[in-house]
Every structure is written in C-alpha cells, then in structure tokens.
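FORM 12-B: Structure-to-Sequence Request
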C-alpha cells in the first residue's frame, strides 16, 4: 500500500542516495549572513537527470538558515511532492516555499479557486471533488501546464503539489517538458490520514493550514475565522483515498529515479528537516547556491 510507512527515517529509494555516509561539513555559502537584500532566486545547474549521477547523504539541515540566492544563472529547482490526502503536502509546501522561494503550484488549490470563482470548469470540477474522484484531464492538465509555464515558475523554480495523480497526467507533463529534479513522497498510514482530514482547518486570510489538535491556531482571533474544506469529511476522505490508492503506483513508476520517500508521521518540523536536508544537498552538490540568510 503506497500510503503506509514502515520506517522512521527518510528512505532514500533512488539508488544513487547514500544515507549512511558521514555528514558533509556546512559549506561556506550556507553560513549565516545578515544581508536580506541579497535575496534573489534559488538557481541550480542540473544535468538532465541529476539523481542518477549525484550522490546524496542524509545529513542534518542547517537550522535557522535560508538558502535564498544564486549568483549563477542556472536551471532552477523543480520539485514534485506527492502523498495520500492529508499526508502533509500543503503543510510542507508552506515551509519549503518559505525557505527556497519556489513557486508553489497545488492542483487542488487551482481547482478550488475555479470552484470559488463559479466558472464552468469550477462547477464541473466540484462534482468530481465532491465524489473524491480525479477531476477530468481536460480541466486540470492545461490549468497546471499554464501555471508551470509562467515566468515566475520558470525563473524561480517550481514546487508541484498533488500533480500528476495519474499516468496520463504524468505522461502529458513529460511531453510538455516538465521533468522534476526530485519527487518527494510523504508516507502516512491511512488511520492517521482520516484524523488529520477531519481536524484540518484553513485560515482564509493567510492561507495557513491548521489542525485543531496538532497545529492549533495561535490566537482566538484566528480561531474564530477558520474554515473547513467541503471535502474534509470522513466519508469523502475515504473516497479520496480509494482514488489515490488506485493511481499512485502508476505515477511512481514513472519517477523511479527521482523518488525520495519521507516518513510523514513525524512532527511537521521533523518532516521538513528531512526534506530540507535533501534539497540542501541537492543545491550544495550542484554548487549553485551562493547566497544565504539567517532566518
Ligand atoms: P487536494 O487539495 O490536493 O487534496 P488531497 O490530495 O486530498 O490532499 P490534502 O490537501 O487533503 O492534504 P495535504 O497532503 O496537503 O495535507 P495538509 O498539509 O493539508 O485535492 C482535492 C481534490 O481536487 C481531489 O480529491 C481531486 O478531486 C482534485 N484534484 C486535485 N489534484 C488533482 C489532479 N492532479 N487531477 C485531478 N483532480 C485533482 O495536512 C492535513 C492536516 O494534517 C492539516 O490539518 C495539518 O495541520 C495536519 N498535518 C500535516 N502534517 C502533519 C504532521 N506532520 N503531523 C501532524 N499533523 C500534520
């Protein structure tokens, strides 16, 4: 079962990863600086398939540091994040974008925006979302492709959340030339997912994701304005899980060389620390991240 987890640590599935090697010393370009004005975009020069030629180690992230700039203009970082409903994709994307300045493109968010705008596509999409099914490709494929093709995604790099979810979506992306450098898979067992969905709340003002138990709102004012997604019921998440389980293997098989599995049952900060390590290693190995900033 794709959404179950048998480990407590990052599982580096890609053959070129070496989790047991000693930690690399902190490169000088990741040392702190007090010059936020150095901010630019993260850029990274990559081979066609960097994970086949690059060796990664599991190392501790550098807490309190933000890799934010590149002095070399190169090909920017391209990240996919996947996992079952409520595995923590959106939560991790908040943390990743904050540090790495990638453009976060969430298929579910794009669709909910269409629903909220009351467009024809939105009305049709909602029928499928209500049933926990995949929204048809004729609605979702071009929507995501167009967002990926925009200038900010091309310049800063992208973080694609919840897409592709089927073999046909993955094949279409490849055909359009969108290939990730890394494919992060969050693993969380199903019994935990249901509890996460039912307790999830969203702040419509900041877009921040909360959980009534695991990540409660900071103030009474925020608590009072929280909303719940229309598909966040136990009944609907079970349907979403069925859809996920019937598609996930075919998608994973297309990204075998880029997959990094992460234990999504850990506290969100620890999950991020694992992801951060991998992304930092990726940047460090390529030697393209030349700026940094103390958080
Ligand atoms: P989408 O919006 O993508 O929903 P999903 O995949 O079901 O994922 P979620 O957003 O529910 O969860 P998440 O993994 O982001 O978890 P989160 O971080 O919020 O898709 C919705 C629908 O749109 C689909 O059903 C489909 O109909 C359609 N759709 C989307 N993409 C499509 C595509 N490609 N093709 C066709 N149709 C598509 O976390 C969940 C909760 O857990 C939160 O409360 C959070 O605070 C908490 N939490 C997170 N991490 C932790 C942690 N480590 N420990 C404890 N609690 C945690």
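FORM 12-B RESPONSE
SEQUENCE OUT:
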């Amino acid at each position: 079962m794709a959404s179950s987890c048998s480990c407590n640590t990052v599982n580096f599935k890609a053959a070129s990863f070496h989790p047991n090697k000693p930690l690399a010393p902190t490169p000088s370009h990741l040392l702190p600086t007090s010059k936020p004005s150095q901010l630019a975009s993260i850029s990274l020069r990559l081979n066609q398939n960097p994970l086949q030629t690059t060796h990664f180690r599991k190392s501790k992230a550098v807490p309190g540091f933000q890799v934010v700039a590149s002095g070399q203009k190169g090909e920017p970082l391209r990240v996919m994040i996947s996992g079952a409903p409520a595995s923590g994709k959106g939560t991790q994307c908040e943390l990743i974008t904050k540090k790495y300045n990638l453009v976060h493109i969430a298929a579910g968010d794009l669709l909910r925006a269409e629903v909220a705008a009351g467009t024809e596509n939105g009305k049709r999409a909602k029928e499928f979302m209500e049933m926990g099914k995949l929204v048809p490709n004729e609605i979702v494929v071009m929507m995501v492709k167009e967002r990926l093709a925009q200038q900010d995604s091309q310049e800063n790099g992208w973080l694609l959340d919840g897409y592709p979810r089927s073999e046909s979506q993955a094949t279409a992306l490849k055909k359009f030339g969108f290939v990730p450098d890394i494919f992060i898979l969050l693993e969380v067992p199903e019994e935990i997912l249901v509890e996460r969905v039912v307790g999830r709340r969203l702040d419509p003002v900041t877009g921040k994701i909360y959980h009534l138990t695991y990540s409660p709102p900071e103030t009474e004012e925020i608590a009072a304005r929280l909303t719940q997604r229309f598909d966040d019921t136990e009944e609907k998440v079970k349907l979403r899980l069925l859809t996920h389980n019937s598609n996930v293997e075919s998608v994973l098989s297309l990204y075998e060389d880029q997959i990094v599995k992460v234990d999504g049952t850990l506290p969100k900060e620890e999950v991020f620390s694992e992801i951060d390590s991998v992304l930092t290693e990726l940047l460090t190995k390529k030697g393209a991240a030349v700026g940094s900033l103390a958080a």
